[in-house]
Serine hydrolase domain-containing protein
Amino acid sequence: MENEKKMKILCLHGFRTSGSFLQKQISKWDPSILAHFDLDFPNGIFPAGGKSDIDGIFPPPYFEWFQYNQGATLSALLLGYQLQVPPQNMKPQD
């Protein structure tokens, strides 16, 4: 098993948690399974912008892979709505 080439797996943590939190969770798997993989547990690129659901359960710091932007969310929702429900004053093209 020592010379066997292991499959590399990138393990991305959830929203406002951390690589070390995910690593702790996965460490509970059977060691005979973990022995076959080279696991990498990076942290998200942004510090958590709000309260984490694991605060008080697992120590900080916590991270996010992307940052929430209210304006971008509203724009995407409006575009999706407009694609589903065309404006009433527009006539279909022949």
The chain has a mean pLDDT of 88. The chain has one domain: 7-82. Strands lie at 7-10, 37-40, 46-47, 63-64. Helices lie at 19-26, 31-34, 70-84.
